[in-house]
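Page 37, continued from 36.
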C-alpha cells in the first residue's frame, strides 16, 4: 500500500487487517501523520489489538532510528515520523487492553530522555503504559540534565529510574546517572532501566543498569519484573486479532 497517497473513505473500508499494520509501519517511516491517523482509526474499527497496532508504529520508528544513525534521515525526517507516531498513539493508547491493578500504587518511576536527546516517543509510550497500570510516574521530559534524575529520585523516593535515548552520543550520560546514584548513596534503593535504539543489553550490563528494554512494551514488562509485579492482573490481554 502506498502511504504517500492520501487515503479515501473507500480505501479505508477496503484495507485488510494485515495491510493496516503494514500501513502504519510505512506511514511512520514516511512521516505521514494523516495516514497514521486514518489507519489507527481503521485498526480500532476492525478490532485489531491496539498493542499490535502500536508495535507496528514502534517498528516503523526503529527503522527511522536506524536511518538516522546511518545519516539517511536527518532531524526534519525524525520530527515528521514522530508526529506520525503521535497521531496514531492518540487513538490507540486509550484502547490498550491492559488490566489495571487493584492496588493503589505499584511503584514510583522517574522517567526521562537523557541530556542531548529530544526524541521522546518511546518514553511517552512507556509513561502511558505505566500510568494506566497503577504506577506513579514522574516525567522529566526530554533533554534532561543528568543530575535531575538523582534529584527527582531523592525528592520522590522513587524506586525506578527509566532512562531513554535514541542517539549514541548520549550514552555516556546514562553511566553518569548511575554514578551519581552511587555518589549519593542511593544506588541500592533504586532500580535503573535503560532503553532506546542506541542502547543494548550488553551496554546495560557494562554500565551496571538493572535492566534493558528494546522498546516501551518490553520496558513495561521489565519494570514489573524487577519490582516483582509480574502477576496476571497486569498482563496485556490479546484479543487474538
Amino acid at each position: 500500500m502506498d502511504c504517500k497517497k492520501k487515503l479515501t473513505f473507500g480505501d479505508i473500508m477496503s484495507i485488510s487487517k494485515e495491510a493496516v499494520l503494514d500501513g502504519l509501519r510505512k506511514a511512520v517511516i514516511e512521516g505521514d501523520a494523516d495516514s497514521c491517523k486514518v489507519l489507527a482509526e481503521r485498526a480500532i474499527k476492525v478490532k485489531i489489538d491496539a498493542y499490535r497496532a502500536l508495535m507496528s508504529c514502534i517498528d516503523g520508528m526503529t527503522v527511522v532510528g536506524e536511518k538516522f544513525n546511518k545519516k539517511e534521515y536527518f532531524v526534519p525526517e525524525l520530527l515528521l515520523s514522530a508526529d506520525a507516531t503521535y497521531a496514531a498513539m492518540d487513538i490507540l493508547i486509550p484502547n490498550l487492553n491492559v488490566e489495571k491493578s487493584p492496588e493503589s500504587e505499584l511503584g514510583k518511576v522517574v522517567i526521562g530522555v537523557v541530556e542531548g536527546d529530544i526524541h521522546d516517543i518511546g518514553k511517552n509510550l512507556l509513561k502511558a503504559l505505566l500510568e494506566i497500570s497503577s504506577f506513579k510516574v514522574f516525567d522529566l521530559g526530554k533533554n534532561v540534565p543528568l543530575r535531575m534524575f538523582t534529584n527527582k529520585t531523592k525528592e520522590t523516593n522513587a524506586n525506578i529510574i527509566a532512562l531513554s535515548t535514541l542517539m549514541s552520543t548520549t550514552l555516556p550520560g546514562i553511566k553518569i546517572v548511575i554514578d551519581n546514584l552511587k555518589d549519593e548513596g542511593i544506588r541500592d534503593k533504586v532500580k535503573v532501566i535503560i532503553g532506546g535504539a542506541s542502547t543494548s543489553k550488553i551496554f546495560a550490563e557494562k554500565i551496571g543498569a538493572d535492566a534493558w528494554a528494546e522498546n516501551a512494551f518490553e520496558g513495561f514488562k521489565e519494570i514489573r519484573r524487577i519490582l516483582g509485579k509480574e502477576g496476571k492482573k497486569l498482563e496485556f490481554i490479546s484479543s487474538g486479532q
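The chain has two domains: 9-95, 107-234. Flag for discussion at group meeting. The beta strands are 107-113, 135-139, 160-164, 191-195, 211-213.
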